[in-house]
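Supplementary notes for students who missed Thursday's class. We covered one full example, reproduced here. Read the sequence, then the structure, then the short commentary at the end.
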Amino acid sequence: MPILGIDYEKCNDCQICYNACYRYFRRDKELNKMVFEDPNNLCDSCGRCIARCKSDAILYENFGEFLTFEEAQNPSTLISYDNMHKFMSAKRSIRGFKKKKVPKADLKKVLDTMKYAPTGANIRTLECTIISDNEKIKELSGVVMDAIIASRLPRYYENFIKAKKYGIDTIFHNAPHVMIIHSENPGDAMNSTIALTYGMLCAQTLGLGSCWIGLAHGVLSSSKEIQEKYTGIQGIVWGVIIIGYPTQIYYRVPPRPDIKTKGLEELE
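Structure (token representation):
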């Protein structure tokens, strides 16, 4: 059980722990203090009580490192709306990459950001497999292309046959790294999508480009044989992206239609 209780030498009895989690914190009238009780070990380890306790009075173990920085109290001071809007609007799906490999330290930064992505009920079951060997990427690309050709989908059939003939990688676009998110948890579909989005935005801060590869995801998630043989992954594949240093430069942000919205016009 990661939450062990309360350090009463630090506790100032503000009761913010109860506000953060009324399920397991309560006011003990006899002891006249807040107590933590989780007899059935149901705490989902969200860490909200730790993060909100100004006195750092929550006792815990096996949580990993807690980040502490002044701006955490007001994240809006970290970046303005205008800069954030520009940054996110400038995110492009990159399909052209330099041959240079991304340093392990930078890929680790991407993964470190992904782990902070929100999940349903704070369930943290996602796993990641990164393929960086050029031959393995090429082999997996060919297998995915073959599967799509075999399906005879009109949108891809003829183009993929031509691509195979001329040795063009229309799946991973010669990217130096393929990142696959997977898990044994059947409820991770949305969790994985959010995590990969976090990862792609983080990658952009490091000068990296990325692209969601839906065709590879479709083949891997529908064929356990291909999934296990060519990636060694067990469980469910939730998403595939490519990542590397981009060769493509965009000089402007392409237009996008407004999201059709009801109820906005009623507000002041």
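Commentary. The two ends are 47 Å apart (CA to CA). The first strand starts at residue 3 and ends at 6. If anything here is unclear, bring it to office hours.
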